[in-house]
Amino acid sequence: MMHVFEMVAIISVFAILAGTVNKWLATRQVPEVDLSGIEGRLAKLESLQERIEVLEAIVTDKGYDLKREIENL
Fold this sequence. Notes:
This is Phage shock protein B. The protein is mainly alpha-helical. Helices cover 84% and strands 0% of the residues. It is built from 3 helices and no strands. It starts with a helix and ends with a helix.
């Protein structure tokens, strides 16, 4: 017949193992990623890129310096 101390020790070991396995299994689950925010940011980034291209075209235009000099007068 088992002693009380042995039974308590065995139950404690099983409880610790069960908790460890439970945490290990919980960390293996892959969370779902919300792509709606990413799609919105990507659209905004594309819009900003188009605006930058237009600004670059304006600034690098040869007539830009002339217009700026006339405005400064």
